[in-house]
Design goal:
By secondary structure, the chain is an alpha/beta fold. The chain contains 12 helices and 8 strands. An 8-stranded mixed sheet has the order 3-2-1-4-7-6-8-5.
Length: about 250
């Protein structure tokens, strides 16, 4: 893919994000002005998320609750040849389109992710972010917090996000790395530390590690989702999907 061929579609799955969605989407306005497509996919919000998102999006879609289902729905609507999946509490750096284009331009990489910085006054979360970035470089696996981007062709070759209730980003990463190694952009996205702060930093770190270990040991994603505190959104995935990957 050469530098002139990128057409970026940014897919943002949302659920009850009224408190911050307008800020996140307004930050995408410069990219939108340059031609990036902004697609917001709502999983059934019962607050003002949709109304607040509508002025800042090119498309506003409904989908069954669950990031995998919502992101797949957004990808199906996208016109771009590069898809970027952005969490609703994560901010892209300035010039993200140029960074993505440069990462994919030589054709040796078909997907990638950004480094992440966790916005928090708790110093331990800066260490957590550094460890996430290092682990991702070593393993070639990315999490949704790192704003995964991928060419449309590679996304389709990988089968999109697996219909599992949790860890869909890790599952996709593991399939994509069979196609190419990831491009690792060291300019970070900024993600909110609210998840850790609300649950407790140490408790959340322990929970995340516990979920990953349980997943590796074969615990079903729907069970992991219940442990995490989110509801499963679909029947248990076929075994081939469950064996492939997970996050949050």
């Amino acid at each position: 893919m050469n530098k002139t061929s990128i057409a970026l579609s940014i897919v943002v799955p949302v659920l009850n994000e009224a408190s911050g969605i307008a800020v996140v989407l307004r930050r995408l306005a410069p990219l939108r002005a340059l031609g990036a497509e902004i697609i917001v996919v709502d999983g059934g919000s019962d607050d003002a998320t949709r109304e607040l998102a509508a002025p800042h999006a090119d498309k506003l879609e409904r989908a069954p609750r669950g990031r995998a289902a919502q992101m797949n729905a957004g990808a199906a609507l996208a016109h771009g040849n590069v898809l970027l999946f952005l969490h609703a509490d994560t901010l892209l750096p300035a010039g993200a389109d140029r960074l993505v284009s440069a990462a994919l331009c030589d054709g040796t990489r078909v997907w990638g992710r950004f480094d992440v910085c966790i916005e928090s006054r708790h110093r331990l979360l800066h260490v957590v972010a550094a460890m996430m970035n290092l682990r991702s470089r070593i393993t070639g696996v990315a999490t949704g917090d790192q704003a995964i981007f991928v060419t449309r062709l590679a996304f389709e070759q990988a089968g999109g996000f697996a219909p599992i209730a949790l860890m869909e980003d890790i599952a996709l990463s593991k399939r994509l790395r069979r196609i190419s190694p990831p491009a690792c952009i060291d300019t970070p996205v900024i993600t909110s530390g609210r998840r850790w702060e609300t649950r407790g930093v140490w408790r959340t770190i322990a929970l995340m590690w516990g979920l990953r270990l349980a997943y590796v040991c074969g615990v079903a994603p729907a069970t992991l989702a219940r442990w995490y505190g989110s509801l499963p959104v679909a029947p248990a995935a076929p075994r081939e999907h469950q064996a492939d990957g997970l996050s949050r």
